[in-house]
UniProtKB/TrEMBL annotation:
InterPro entries: Arg_MeTrfase (IPR025799), Methyltransf_25 (IPR041698), PRMT_dom (IPR055135), SAM-dependent_MTases_sf (IPR029063)
Domain Protein arginine N-methyltransferase: 224-387
Disordered: annotated span: 1-49
Keywords: Methyltransferase, Nucleus, S-adenosyl-L-methionine, Transferase
Localisation: Nucleus
Biased composition (Polar residues): 9-22
GO cellular component term of the entry, any: nucleus
Protein name per its UniProtKB record: Methyltransferase domain-containing protein
Gene Ontology molecular function, alphabetical: histone methyltransferase activity; protein-arginine N-methyltransferase activity
Annotated GO biological process: chromatin remodeling; methylation; regulation of DNA-templated transcription
Gene3D superfamilies assigned to the protein according to its UniProt record, in alphabetical order: Hnrnp arginine n-methyltransferase1, Vaccinia Virus protein VP39
Record's compositionally biased regions (Acidic residues): 28-40
Length: 401
């Protein structure tokens, strides 16, 4: 998941000639009705590979072993172990605070809807630097309880004191599931819980736990709606450079690494000109009413081509909204919207689909927390296509970790 593009997306070449992005592609011998590609049911899921990924061969990115610690000991740790430690570093908070789509939306929601916060008790779940708590306090909240499990809680306390809000904001260091609030109930729960692919890191369940334990009957959760969407893109250059590369490395077959590369979704910004199909709503979540188990789901999809092109990957993104405001407010992390630190999540396909305008890819996406490491996500993509130029039916498994 940690991979990043090292260069900008460049136009696809067809028959050796560069094609403008978003332009209609004319396939050779379009009069030939027989499909030029045919693939039967198969899967990229390799049991031995995934077993290894689950256990001692798991790679932990950007971490080093402590003195006296073996690499295998380090590898036994997972994203669940590193989750809170990662939020102790100021860099990740800097990135989130500088994401103006994210932070300004929350600021506008709070400042432009002070009637929601005036004299209310607020719980900030996963407070980080305390920025949302500060917004709430400035908007007139009676008291704000800012819960943060990482060492950033110590910084948040100092930030609160420095800005003169110690009498309004109480920073509590610990896990939401383990702390006790000084009050029985709160009027508002606010949180920026969304992860990559909306659900990565599984912080949503923490918000739902807090809702069920502390929120008053007529209380509100902000944001209260989230939706996951899917589309398909052309991405030949990146797939060739980063995935097909492993087929022949200085004359040696290293395609076993290619399998692993395909299993790990890519988090990156997709150019809107790469989009080939419509965008499909997969799942809508009502945070104020949903049960924790609702974050696991299987959703059908149908993606219809808007032009003749090649499809190399499916792309997921999410929208969030605050429906309790005076005016509906929210933001999208989609490729046609202003970029956010969440970017989009790219699921590369094993095979290239050659699609014509009006043809459709159908299938389903199954999403669930990993049973061993619940902050990770397991994704199962089933898809089929029967078009003029290609036919395919396949199941691919992905792991966000």
């Amino acid at each position: 998941m940690g991979r990043r593009r090292s260069d900008n997306h460049s136009p696809t070449t067809l028959n050796g000639l560069p094609q403008p992005q978003g332009s209609k592609i004319c396939f050779e011998d379009d009069d030939d009705e027989a499909p030029v590609e045919e693939t039967t049911e198969s899967s990229n899921f390799d049991e031995s590979m995934c077993d290894a990924a689950d256990d001692s061969n798991r790679v932990i990115e950007d971490t080093a072993c402590e003195p006296g610690q073996s690499f295998n000991d380090k590898d036994d740790k997972t994203s669940a172990d590193y989750y809170f430690d990662s939020y102790s570093h100021f860099g990740i908070h800097e990135e989130m605070l500088k994401d103006t789509v994210r932070t300004k939306t929350y600021q506008n929601v709070i400042y432009q809807n002070k009637f929601l916060f005036k004299n209310k008790v607020v719980l900030d779940v996963g407070a980080g630097t305390g920025i949302l708590s500060l917004f709430c306090a400035k908007a007139g909240a009676a008291h704000v309880y800012a819960v943060e499990c990482s060492h950033m809680a110590d910084m948040a306390k100092e930030i609160v004191e420095t800005n003169g809000f110690s009498n309004v904001i109480t920073v509590l260091k610990g896990k939401v599931e383990e702390i006790e609030l000084p009050v029985a109930k709160v009027d508002i729960i606010i949180s920026e819980w969304m992860g990559y692919f909306l659900l990565f890191e599984n912080m949503l369940n923490t918000v739902l736990y807090a809702r069920d334990k502390w929120l008053v009957d007529d209380g509100i959760v902000l944001p209260d709606k989230a939706s996951l969407h899917l589309t398909a893109i052309e991405d030949a250059d990146y797939k060739e450079d980063k995935i097909e590369f492993w087929n022949s490395v200085y004359g040696f077959d290293m395609s076993c690494i290619k399998k692993q590369a395909l299993v790990e979704p890519l988090v990156d910004t997709v150019d809107q000109n790469q989009i080939v199909t419509n965008c499909q709503l997969l799942k809508t979540m009502d945070i104020s009413k949903m049960a924790p188990g609702d974050a696991s789901f299987t959703a059908p999809f149908k993606l219809v081509a808007e032009r003749d092109d090649y499809i190399h990957a499916l792309v997921a993104y999410f929208d969030v909204s605050f429906t309790k405001c005076h005016k509906l407010t929210g933001f999208s992390t989609g490729p046609r919207s202003r970029s956010t630190h969440w970017k989009q999540t790219v699921l590369y396909l094993e095979d290239v689909i050659t699609i014509c305008e009006g043809e459709s890819i159908t299938g389903s996406l199954n999403v669930a927390p990993n049973k061993k490491n619940p902050r990770d996500i397991d994704i199962v993509l089933k898809y089929s296509f029967n078009g003029r130029r290609s036919t395919i039916s396949k199941t691919q498994h992905y792991k966000m970790r």
